[in-house]
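User: ok so my PI wants both of these folded by tonight, can you help

Assistant: No problem, let's get them done. Here's the first:
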Amino acid sequence: MPQHVTFDSAFFQEPQHLYRALRNDGPLHRFTSPTGVTGWMITDYDVARRVLNDRSVIKTQDTMAGADPSAQPRELSARLRSWLRERTSPWMVSHMLAAEPPDHTRLRGVVQSAFSPAALRALEPAIEQYATDLIAKLDSESGSEPVDLVESYAFALPVQVICRILGVPDRHMGAIGEASRVLSDVIVADPDDLRRAALTLAKIIYPLMRKRRRHPTDDVLSLLMQANRAKQLSLQEAMSTVALLLIAGHETTVNLIANTTHLLLEDRTALMRLQAGDTRLRDVIEESLRFEPPLPTTTLRQASIDLDIDGTLISAGDIVMISLAAANRDPAKFDQPDTFDPARATRGSLAFGHGIHHCIGAPLARLEAEIALKKLVAAYPDMHLDTDIGDAVWRESIVFRGLRSLPTRLH
């Protein structure tokens, strides 16, 4: 029988306890978000993969903004009603992730070249240098004291990389990180915090867009402004795309680097096998993506027609959330799914989604994680957690799975 899911502190610290119970009661369950959005959560691998590829379960600007577009005003909380009426901004949700074809195809096509294999090969030396410089900084600042590898390394590297790709000066990295932590999870965040974070990003992005319109360079901001002049996308769509890439372009990779480091530090056998060359780093990363995906759920979708999914009626207008973290631990797909095993075959993992909305930056995230972890493990072969195993504190985020901090002794 379907259960009703709410998102409490226990869920954020260990969601797999709930997912195991949910799977025993079927593949679909009702949920209510902290901001009052209600819908269906999918936890079964086969159903998740099928729905991710179902063109009748769509993305919209409303669902991307964390709103329930089918609800009547009287059904909404006062906070959410005020937010929907006054505070949501299409300047933040007019991008590819909030669109279906043909708009999705058009918007994704404008920036696709920036994430091509050739573009990533050209970027690799810069990522290597960023990682080398961050390791040197850790050496000079850490001494015998523990360091927080989330803030000092896992965050610092990806935000530098995405700022370079977009053409955003490094001086904005701190503000981008703070705004991103709010905007990355609209169905949890306070509406006033969302408004402030959106304004922060807009104040950074808009002047840079105007500058690139007059003086284009070799970056994504210039690419978007050229496309805007050619009427391939609107100014609103261009700004929204920059916001999306700034947020998703570093949040996912921060969590991938930190989560994988954490798994290795908790599992010394896996770390020693990696150091001895018995395990490939790429396999460690792929298993980390399956076991502790940095994107545990998709952003919200909406059924555009009535659907029968495994005997459950999903009415037109219903909100749908797909749990990638639950699907990736489905025992019907993966043997012993709750065991971290880099030697396993991870083919079919849904860590970066599936279908037309598969994460455009997935190859970049994998490349950054591989470089970051290679450098870190080589520099600090004896690093170890400065907390007891199992004491990790996780962010209270539905869309991202990431540690608040990772206190580590490097020597």
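One down. Here's the second:
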Amino acid sequence: MSAHPTRKYLSEFAVNLFSGRWLMIPSWQIGTDGTMLPEYAEVSENCHIYLICRRPGFSYSPSSFRYIDGKISGDLIYKVDGVSHKIPFETEFPLLEGAIDIALSPYPHREIQTKDKNDEIVRYLPATALGIGIGVHVRERSLSDLEVLYVGQAYADGKRSALDRLKRHSTLQKILANAQYNMPDDEIFVLTFEYAPYSVVTMFDGRAKDPIQGEDDEKRFVSILENPLTQHQQICLAEAGLIRYFQPKYNEIYKESFPASDLKILSECYDLDFSALAVEINTEELEFNLYSRSIFPRGHHIAQFDLIDPSKRLSFFSLEGQSGNAIARPDVISPSR
């Protein structure tokens, strides 16, 4: 019968990665030549992780659309499992830049378009953009849930943004084709996230029995400070952690293998004796929730990983029971064996 795992060092260290600024972009905008506002473009160009997600798509009801006294009104339409739902709207929408006419785009009526005297489109308002703008996903909570279909990294040594890569991304094209065939009432979005430099979280176990401490323990911490993870290593860890956590339908690598001691992206973590990893992603700012087939919808997710086998050595997330046995936390993912 094997002995209970023990705490090797007095202190344990974890890598904590957390998202910051982010953008939510309808997939159809990826291939267009439109321009973003400078503040949005700057976020896009500096993002590190992107998610491809889906939720019900929106269109305008042609029977209820009206334009009176500078205001548009009518119903937004979306479908869930083939059943139609309507959300009424009314908002200001002045004719600008020489526009003299306003109408819905042809079927499936995804846009409101204004046109000039030459019948050229001057401005347009997608139904999805209007819906987000007036907060329909806040009023109808099911519309705030975005299913994560794919996780990727946008890091390319600063040479290409996520949107540049996605214009020719085979997986995105596959998802769009499958969605058009199998989920015609849904819309695909790309969410891009900027990740802040990682933080080191330290845990001290005052109840540990005879752990290594003092100078030997302090040297580990100094080594962590003097040998920081590169940005590329951080983004690889964030990508792998989110894939393992969400188990997205269209990802293949890392869904079962992360974390494992033989993975190259974890080698520096093991060299520095990090015993845990936490990857956070947050969409609470715009009141959206991320979910997948295995993860419930939430605005703030924390994927937690033991990087060492808790059955052999108590790790950052390990708890010791009264009898000395290790208590496993159900929300922590242990190394693949």
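The two ends are 20 Å apart (CA to CA). The CA atoms of residues 71 and 92 lie 4 Å apart. Good luck tonight!
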